[in-house]
Amino acid sequence: MKKTVALAFCMLLLFVLVFSFLIMSIDNEADSHRDSAFIIWGTLDYANETHMGGEPERDASRNICDSIYCLVFDTQQYVYCNNFWGNDTQPNQVYGNVSYCEENYNFTAIFYKGHSIGANCDVEGCEFGEHWTLYAAEGYKHEYILDYLIHDSLSSINHDFVFLWTCGYGAEDMIGEIDKNGHSVGMMASWMNTTDLEADGYATSDGSQRCFIGFDIYSIFFITKTGYGDFNYGDFASLFFEYAMIKDWTVNDALDAAAEETHLQSSFGDCQLYTGYLMPDPHGPGDYVTCYMRIWGDGNLKLGEGGVGK
Amino acid sequence: MNLRTKKVCLFLIFIVASAAFAYLPAAYLTENSNADEVLLFLEEVVRIDVSKYDVTSLGTSVTYPDWLNGLPQVTGKYTLDGETSKLDVLFKFRSGTLSWCLMRVMEGSPHYLDVQSGNTGYMAKDFLERYQDYLGDSELEAMRNILDGKVADNSTTTLGNLKLTMSVTSFSSCFDWRYTLEGTDCGGVDVSFHNGHFYAFGDDRQYYPIVITK
Fold first, then answer.
1. B184 interface with A at CB cutoff 8 Å
2. Predicted-complex ipTM score
3. Which residues of B are less than 8 Å from A15 in CB distance?
4. H or E stretch covering A190
């Protein structure tokens, strides 16, 4: 009888050990990326149906940003994960949040969905002329999110992944610059404090472990169909983040897997986001311009595990 | 050890084994067969000399996307580390069939089993011939036939209900064989080449109709 009890005790002990080991190994995975932030911003203004997509685009933007937030949050790979799409996208909240993330995290990933517009700045000695802004919640003719005020909020330079689904800021002549006084213009320069990233980080990753994604000329609507099955570009955006969260997957891997699923072609390099797509030109009725999604910097950057590979 | 003791031991062993298996990702159970299939594809169709590489699985994930009507999609990544080259390989199995494979050359130049043609038209033809042998699928004969004629860059050739689109960009050369039904694209096979190497392949013939009805 004593032998039976001892044996049962040993087996229970073994069970507890195996169980604890498995639980601890899972917890350790979650703990290994405690220093990363993932933030979503987005405007509510889709008033212009032709050039902003109207209410369907606004609804799609809300839904897709929500789904991106949920899938990133559920991975528990980013200790600070927030979706500020909508009313919370206020200029001061953006600057404050940039500052907060710079001070508290080692790696910050940003996704913004909205629109772009030029603006002037009142900084003494500014020689840039026009500055570039993002629409805040209320949008047109309200206070905009200014490039140089984002830059003024940087400290540790940890915004290593910035994806702006808005017009223009992925173009070579829009990446911006930083003057000798630390005054900046342009979104890449302002969010990431650099203008040195490789222009085609998909084909030629620069190993910088920093990546900026933007659009050259006009961004494509989430509600625009990709031409394959019933997929649209909102599906592409959502799938991109789904794949990017897989451990050991790179930005390029996620772009390829998302493109393959939503396009006729089998890679991002073969699909129209990379090769060029046509958008109506608001400056020339009836005309179309060729636009691109541009991947700057390091397409081999890994977002999984909170960018811990960085 | 009496019968009761044996029963207790067996019961406890069963619990320990069950607990351990419960924590194994479902994908793990199919990982090995997926690896075999992907490596076989790389060897027999792309003609990579897999024996020259150390292969590491970076894990797989299984999803059941709505658009596949509940069918499983297994997605994964392998790295192939050789002395002079390094390759990243992505893949997707849909309903158990390899439907996507992409090979990114990370370092060096891939080890091939044969000398590769420098002409993308021949590369596409060879790829299709080997893919036909790999699948044992006579349907691909029609796709091969359409390549027999000269195919110009950035052109579309139609033969019956089969359409071949060949496009050349600054990044790749892409061949897409697609069935059409009353002018609507249906399932097909596509392959692209980048820097003279196989880059990406897709075969959606088995599930494309499901996509239309999403």
1. no
2. 0.85
3. 12, 15-16, 19
4. helix A187-192
